[in-house]
User: Fold this.
Amino acid sequence: MATIEKFEDIQAWQMARQSTRMIYEASSKGTFNRDFALRDQIRRSAISIMSNIAEGFDRDGNKEFLNFLSIAKGSCAESRAQLYVALDGGHISQAEFDRLYTSLDQTGRLIGGFMRYLSSSEVKGKKFRDAETRNAKPGTRN
Assistant:
């Protein structure tokens, strides 16, 4: 796997950004735009996906990052659930629902895959690597 230098390099974050853009576009039209509670909630949950991936990445430790990724994955599910409300309320068509749902589903799958990778990775994060280096006995490798 390529080295990830910043959260913007994470494929799941990139997909979350695309999904958020799509949610904003869909919720800016017609009756969806006037259903303030649903519009604002689905936007907040979509934003939460991106934000939690970014915040977790900058925590520099896999345990914390995994926790933030789990929250992001939950926000992805929340956004998908809210799409049903938008569909049932007549705010979006079935085709729009399918397009948005697919994007959010792919985002959630990427997050889940990244979580599995981090769980099995020996690299535990920058702050832990630095701590191991500081605490290493002379002449040993970490």
Notes: The CA atoms of residues 2 and 9 lie 10 Å apart. The helical segments are 11-27, 30-34, 36-57, 62-88, 94-120, 126-135. The mean pLDDT is 90.
